[in-house]
Amino acid sequence: MKLLVVDSDRDMVEMVTGWLRTRGYEVHHAFTHERARQVWLDKRPDVVIIDPENHGNDPLAMCREMRDAHDALVLVFTTTNGEDAESAYLESGADSFLAKPFLPRQLLAHLRALSRRVRSTLVRNPSTIIDVGPLRVDTVRHEVVRDGKVVRLTPTESRLLHLLAANANDICTLDQIVVHVWGFGESGDNYLVKAHIRHLREKIEPVPGKPQFILTSPGVGYMLKRHVVEVSPFAEEAQIHEEIQAPLASSAPANPAPSRVIPGFVP
């Protein structure tokens, strides 16, 4: 999940950004409204974390405007506390409210709650067929095609792979996967996800123990990698050419005799 942290307090931004990155999130930051607009459009975050009190203009108005270009959830964190402040921000367009100071686990809990709320829009590509590199995922037929080979999937495996394919190159958290695929989220569900990920790898990975497509972000979730490095046919042709030329070169005389020059002939 991609995050954008907006706050004029540079120390706060650097602290929050650094900690969230250790939790596996892709985090971008901005110290001004102008920079926030640019990053919002360029990076297309899933959640924007903003302190509305450290900016001269109305930051929530900016958020409402930017949502027309790219929809994102907004988490307000501010020193203003109390039910009145929380109600005011929520009514102004914020999706969640967190009072400063806060503990890291409180921020993480809010982000996890937001990730569950976006499950209905997490799949950005509504198509039932998605191409990701050499993979073609078909959720209607419950199958995946890799390099021309058709592999059958169970309905659960199909939903899981479709979720990863629709968010290729982005990490889907364990909570997002559980809620989207099974519709619930209780302790112990992570083992259920791991079991299905293992089954998928056995079906689509050339070497399941060394996955190229479905990658793990430890403690966070899984990602379907869009691009897999493949050996170019021109590289293979060059290698074959070298292998053919090698014995010919070794069999050639070390000091070949000089060519005979025929007078009047221009080669």
What's the structural domain tally?
2
According to CATH, the fold-level topology of the largest domain is Rossmann fold
Number of strands: 12
What low-confidence regions span 5 or more consecutive residues with pLDDT below 50? Answer: 120-125, 228-241, 246-252, 256-267
How much is the average pLDDT? 77
Distance between the termini: 68 Å
The CATH architecture assignment of the largest domain turns out to be 3-Layer(aba) Sandwich
CATH superfamily of the largest domain: Response regulator
Lateral strand order in the biggest sheet: 2-1-3-4-5
CATH class group of the largest domain: Alpha Beta
Order of helices and strands: EHEHEHEHEHEEEEHEHHEEH
Shape: elongated
Percent in helix: 40-55%
Percentage beta strand: 15-25%
The major beta sheet can be summarized as: 5 strands, parallel
Helical run tally: 9
Rg result: 27 Å
**Category from helices, strands and their pairing:** alpha/beta
Describe the protein's architecture and organization.
The chain has 267 residues and is an alpha/beta fold. The chain folds into 2 domains: 116 residues, Response regulator (Rossmann fold, 3-Layer(aba) Sandwich); 95 residues, Arc Repressor Mutant, subunit A. Helix content is 42%, strand content 19%. The strands form 3 sheets. Strands 2-1-3-4-5 form a 5-stranded parallel β-sheet, with helices on both faces. Helix 3 links the parallel strand 3 and strand 4. Helix 7 crosses helix 8. The longest helix has 19 residues. The protein is elongated. The chain starts with a strand and ends in a 16-residue tail after the last helix.
